[in-house]
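Quick one, tokens below. Sequence please?
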């Protein structure tokens, strides 16, 4: 795994760099911490898109602020197909992503421990206003 020191940093210039750096770290953590029932499950050798790639796409989508499963999948398929040449269909990808949620959470926790994110005294609170319903559909909305 990458060894970070106080005087060393990685510059992420574009989304491709984010995918590549994230994949390397997530793949290492997946190999170390994923449970045996996930890594040794039936027909794992026949899958085209690895679990590490699915988790990477999922986490990078969350980091980019995209909250639509289908929108993020279509964006990756359109713009980064060369990074994931064996990208499966949308419904299969989303089903696998949901099946791997516990492993994704475990990897996210290990990343937080690795970067010491939880040990700071200051936290960022997202205070972005959220639309409850669009004005065009306001007549359909009975209560908020």
């Amino acid at each position: 795994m990458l060894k970070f020191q106080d005087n060393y940093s990685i510059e992420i210039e574009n989304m491709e760099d984010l995918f590549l750096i994230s994949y390397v770290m997530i793949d290492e953590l997946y190999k170390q911490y994923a449970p045996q029932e996930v890594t040794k499950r039936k027909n794992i050798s026949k899958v085209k898109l690895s679990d590490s790639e699915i988790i990477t796409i999922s986490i990078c989508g969350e980091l980019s602020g995209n909250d639509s499963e289908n929108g993020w999948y279509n964006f990756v398929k359109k713009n980064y197909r060369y990074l994931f040449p064996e990208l499966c269909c949308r419904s299969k990808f989303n089903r696998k992503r949901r099946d791997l949620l516990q492993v994704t959470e475990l990897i996210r926790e290990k990343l937080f421990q690795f970067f010491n994110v939880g040990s700071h005294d200051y936290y960022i609170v997202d205070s972005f206003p959220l639309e409850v319903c669009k004005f065009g559909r306001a007549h359909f909305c009975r209560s908020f």
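Helices lie at 15-33, 36-39, 51-63, 69-79, 90-99, 101-115. The mean pLDDT is 80.
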